[in-house]
Design brief:
Number of helices: 8
Helix content: 25-40%
Structural class: alpha+beta
Shape: globular
CATH architecture: 3-Layer(aba) Sandwich
Order of helices and strands: HHEHEHHEHEHHEE
Largest sheet: 4 strands, antiparallel
CATH topology: NADH Oxidase
Number of strands: 6
Radius of gyration: 20 Å
Strand content: 15-25%
CATH superfamily: NADH Oxidase
Number of domains: 1
Distance between the termini: 38 Å
CATH class: Alpha Beta
């Protein structure tokens, strides 16, 4: 693949929350993992593992854990002044997760004992960021592979949260020394994604050293991550109501 082909692929690939319930071939899942298997890994530790969940009863249990955790996060957010709350948590928790209908969940996780491949990091008490980097690269490879197969994916990063992750690990029998990094919901898309807003290239590049004049102030950053919003109500293909947040 040439550069233009790669650029077109990454522009086309989007996170999708609405999936068709139609099953996908096992071969597609294996192809996604095969690509991730060749992702770069520090010192060739190859700590990444993949748990493929296809049984409906297991997926339903995982989704229920997310529903319960969502309620907890809403209640925590409500303890803050309303003007400081995260926009999507202003409403009552709906407990709906559109990605739950995806036919396959792939949980990317890693054996954190592989951190010991860098003994000095362990000796100095460094956080195992090396393994985390490996997991992130593997996950990105999987999302790109899925796009080439005509599949949609949704990155569910909250599975890595300590509390929620502990419950999911217990459900799936994952050892304590392993870390859940991401749940990838994958299947055929049920909707066409909107064009993605990307920051201008000139805002991202600093040559030789940081251009402090382009560093956001605290107020600018607060406005950037918590902009004014309007909430539009749209109808899901399943008949359920969902909320589309649109920047104004």
């Amino acid at each position: 693949m040439d550069y233009e082909g790669l650029l077109e692929l990454v522009k086309k690939r989007r996170m999708i929350r609405r999936f068709k319930p139609d099953p996908i071939p096992d071969e597609y899942v294996e192809k996604m993992i095969e690509v991730a298997r060749f992702a770069p890994t520090a010192c060739n530790a190859q700590a990444t593992e993949f748990i493929v969940v296809k049984k409906k009863e297991t997926k339903d249990k995982i989704v229920e854990l997310f529903r319960q955790e969502n309620i907890v996060w809403h209640h925590l957010e409500w303890t803050r002044p309303k003007e400081d709350r995260f926009p999507r948590l202003l409403e009552e928790p709906k407990g709906r997760f559109a990605w739950a209908v995806a036919p396959v969940f792939i949980i990317v996780c890693g054996d954190m004992r592989a951190h010991e491949i860098e003994p000095m990091y362990v000796h100095l008490g460094f956080y195992p960021y090396v393994v985390w980097s490996d997991l992130a690269i593997s996950a990105v490879y999987m999302h790109l592979a899925a796009a080439t197969l005509g599949l949609a994916t949704h990155w569910v990063a909250s599975v890595a949260e300590p509390r929620l992750g502990a419950f999911v690990k217990d459900l799936l029998g994952v050892p304590r020394d392993w870390q859940l990094f991401e749940l990838i919901a994958t299947g055929y898309p049920a909707a066409e994604p909107r064009p993605r807003h990307v920051r201008p290239r000139e805002e991202l590049i600093h040559y030789d050293q940081l251009d402090k004049a382009r560093v956001k102030t605290d107020e600018q950053m607060k406005e950037y991550i918590n902009p004014p919003i309007s909430i539009l109500v749209c109808q899901e293909t399943t008949g359920e109501t969902s909320y589309l947040v649109v920047m104004t």
